[in-house]
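[Discussion] Sanity-checking designs against the backbone

I'm trying to build intuition for which residues belong where. Below is a structure token string of 278 positions. I'd appreciate it if someone posts a full sequence so I can compare it with mine line by line.
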């Protein structure tokens, strides 16, 4: 369903810089959308529920990222209203922690659909509307470089998303389109709260989770000054890169990481970090 405070015809918006943000009802997506509105973009937000954004230059499209038919319809709606797309930011993601032996088929398919299929299909459908100077940003995860027990499907989708972005970058470089990926560690969002309530890894708390505002600032920075990949914090990226080169390193380091993760999680619980809306 297409919701807009001011639904203008395509011709009226031909000179407007348009930014598409998925997962716009989540903490990071909402903040990114508001920041881009402040920078003068017309922002089209995609998510299942309407975010807390009221702005004349904000258009909301309600859709379930796991449903291909809704995705196709959303792309048609965007194309019918906006002559071009300047920025595409993929924030939508879900995680359903489970051991491989016990995970349900529905959870597997939904994670793949939202974390990997949706950004690939949406990007494919919108590329013809993107020209020189356009930006595409994928909000990835450290899980792409550091796969953990209990998060096999989430890690697999994020690793796939990383390779998709790298391949896409090669395809569109000659058109002047920049493709960036950001790999945050744990972020203090509702998604993290739900993950931990479902048995998520204490390794999310080896270091203090980043705030959604901090990650959103990095995303906007990538839009304004593109870089192919950015790990946040950078030190995590160094360790993650080493683990990719030497998979045994993660296994060897696990006892130490688990020790600090348990301490960090206990500290987070004492501080009631999940008691406030994140």
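Best answer:
Here's mine. Compare freely.
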């Amino acid at each position: 369903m297409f919701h807009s405070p001011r639904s203008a015809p395509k011709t009226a918006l031909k000179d407007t810089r348009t930014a598409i943000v998925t997962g716009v009802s989540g903490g990071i997506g909402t903040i990114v959308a508001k920041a881009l509105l402040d920078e003068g973009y017309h922002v089209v937000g995609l998510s299942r529920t309407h975010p807390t954004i009221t702005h004349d230059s904000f258009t909301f499209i309600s859709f379930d990222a796991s449903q291909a038919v809704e995705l196709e319809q959303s792309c048609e709606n965007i194309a019918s209203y906006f002559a071009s797309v300047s920025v595409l930011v993929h924030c939508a993601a879900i995680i359903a922690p489970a051991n491989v032996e016990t995970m349900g088929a529905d959870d597997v398919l939904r994670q793949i659909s939202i974390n990997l299929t949706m950004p690939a299909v949406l990007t494919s459908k919108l590329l013809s509307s993107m020209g020189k100077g356009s930006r595409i940003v994928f909000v990835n995860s450290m899980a792409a470089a550091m796969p953990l027990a209990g998060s096999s499907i989430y890690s697999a989708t994020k690793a796939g998303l990383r390779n998709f972005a790298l391949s896409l970058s090669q395809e569109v470089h000659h058109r002047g389109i920049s493709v960036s990926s950001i790999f945050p560690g744990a972020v203090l969002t509702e998604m993290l709260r739900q993950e931990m309530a479902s048995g998520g890894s204490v390794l999310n708390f080896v270091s203090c989770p980043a705030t959604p505002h901090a990650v959103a600032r990095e995303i906007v920075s990538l839009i304004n000054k593109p870089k192919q990949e950015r790990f946040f914090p950078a030190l995590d990226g160094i360790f993650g890169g080493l683990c990719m080169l030497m998979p045994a390193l993660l296994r060897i380091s696990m006892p130490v990481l688990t020790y600090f993760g348990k301490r960090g999680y206990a500290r987070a619980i004492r501080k009631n970090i999940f008691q406030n809306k994140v």
